[in-house]
Structure formats: C-alpha cells, structure tokens
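Budget justification, computational time. The allocation requested in the original proposal was used primarily to generate structure tokens for proteins on the priority list. As evidence of use, we reproduce two of the resulting records. The first is shown immediately below.
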Amino acid sequence: MRSGFIQPLLACMLLAFSLPAMAQDAAAQGIERQMTTEEFKAAGLDKLSPAELARLNAWLNRTVETAAAEAKKRVEDDNRGFFSFGSSEPVVATIAGEFRGFARGREYTLDNGNVWKQVDEASLVGARLTNPEVKITPSMVGNSWYMQVGRYNTRAKVQRIK
C-alpha cells in the first residue's frame, strides 16, 4: 500500500465512524438548537407547533443517521482487503479479461477497480477463463485474503494493492 494513501484513508475512516456519533449528538439537540434564533425564524420554523417541530426533528434525525450509516458502509466496502473491518463476507467480483491461472507475483484486476497480487506459491496450471467470477475471502485470523476463481477449488493467498 502506498504511504500517500494511508492518511486520506484514515481520515475517511475516522469521518465515517464518527458520523453516527455526530448524528446522535445533533438528534439530542434538535434543529432549534442547531440554528441561531435568526436562522430559525428566517426559515419559518418558529411557526411550527411543538408537535410539528418534533416530527421535523425526527425526520431529520432519521435522514442524518441513514446517511451516516451509508457513508460508513461505503468506506468499509471501498477499503476491504486493506482492512477486514471484522466482516467475514467475501469480496465477489469478476476478473477483467483473461485469467491464466495462479502464479506468485501475478496481479489480478477486478471489474470493481480492485487490484490484488498473489503472495503465495499456489499454482493453477492450464486454466484459461475469460472474465471469470472470483471470490476473495478473509482468513479467520489476521488480515490475510484468499482468492478462488470460477469453478476451481484451488485458492491463492492474495494482497490488495489498489
């Protein structure tokens, strides 16, 4: 992993994981405490009854919490392979182009933009597939990942590089 990539990745992860907490803080305060008195009046919100204001706050809170959860999931999905995030779900995609078997050091570009490099000695001689589906599963312990291609049972240890 390139060192220039780590800081932006960590910043995105921090933001995505802090958004739900920020959303809960805003939910506890309500919109009337988020805005200045002038902003509240200019938006016409001072005309709402307490029940209407409560409904507006509930809707805003659901919207913010949903957006925060979606942002967190997007960061996790986009960065699977660099980190496991505790999920045992495999990465399922398609190799873009031809697959010619496993070999140490070989790179595999997937249709989702991920690039994985084989880091073990697993081999699959004579395999020839075009745009095959792959399943990349995390190990039970640590941050190791294993790729299985198409109908073949052979798995190769891989590392995400992009």
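The second record produced under the same allocation is shown here.
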Amino acid sequence: MSEVRIAAEARTEFGKGAARKIRRADKVPAVLYGHGIDPKHLTLPGHEVLLALRTPNVLIHLKGEGVDELALPKGVQRDPIKGFVEHVDLLLVKRGEKVTVEIPVTTTGDVNSEGILDQQSVTVAVEAEATHIPTGVEVDVEGLEVGTVVTAGELKLPQGATLAADAETVILQVIAKPTEAPAEGEAAEGEAEAPAEGGESAEAAAE
C-alpha cells in the first residue's frame, strides 16, 4: 500500500465559526489521536484529502511544522448534500504496527443460472501491518450452485492479513431465483372457470 503525503498545519482556532472559515478556504479541520498522545488539531488541504479518501484505509503521511506522522482515517464527516469533507478523525500509527481495519469484499464471475448472488457483507475485518493494509479481498463465484454459502473463514485473504471477524460470519450465499407468480388476469380467469362444489359450474348450479 502506497502512502499519500499531505501537508498539515497546526490549528489554533476552534468552534463552528472557525471551522466554517477553514472550509471556505477549501481546507478541512482534522484531529490526530492515538498512542496516548494529546490530540493534535490540524488543518489539511481539502482537495488532497478528498482524493486520498477515495482509497479505502489510505495511509496518510502528515507532514508540516511540528507534525511528521503516519495516520489512518477513522472517522469522516461529509456534507450530506454536496458531499465535500467537513472533518476527519485520524488515528496515529507506526511502521510495523498491526491494526484492525475493514477491507472491501468484491466478487468475480457469475453464479449458476438457476440462482442469484446474495452478498450479505461488503467488507470484512482483518488485521494487518499499518503500512501494508490490503486494498480488498476477491471471491470467485463463477458457477456456484444454489445453496452455496461462503463464510469469512473461507476467504482467501491477501498475504500478511489475518481474519479479525468471526469465521462463521456469512459473506455471501447463492439463493434460488424466485418463481414467477401467475399473471393477475390468468389467476382471475382460472377462478372464474373453477367448478362449484359438487362438480357443477356456478351457472349450472344457478339453473
């Protein structure tokens, strides 16, 4: 996993007014914490942060006056309408240190034509070195039959990663395609043609 270097500035002004001022300058308020240090309040360039966060579990190298640290994003607040980053919580990590993170689970191939894929979890928790976090894990579902279940313990994790989730957690399964119900018109027609009790039609019974 590559590192993304981002310039960091110490932040000395706090509160909603200060945060709005920072965002108007296309920057993002951030807090760095972990390893027992006092939280460091930082200001980061907004565009660089937005690009970095496109990669899951991106390793960020914060570099600036009084700051030279590695960190992982652990909490991101976004504007609910425009989507820009409003605040970032960053976890301080060290080289060689192991961390627990959620990595994406993706699939390749198509299941048997009689079934459909039901993916119940799009991520799985793993433990890996902070500087070697895998980008994800892939599952080949080509030709899987109805009734097949793949659990977290059956995933082929990337080298260096170990499972941190419950091994019995269901990641995906193949379920049968739903049967087609009769059309509404056909059902109504069938009911009209059904004979009354005693083997006679409704019309015959009326006569």
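A brief technical remark on that second record: The longest strand covers residues 67-78.
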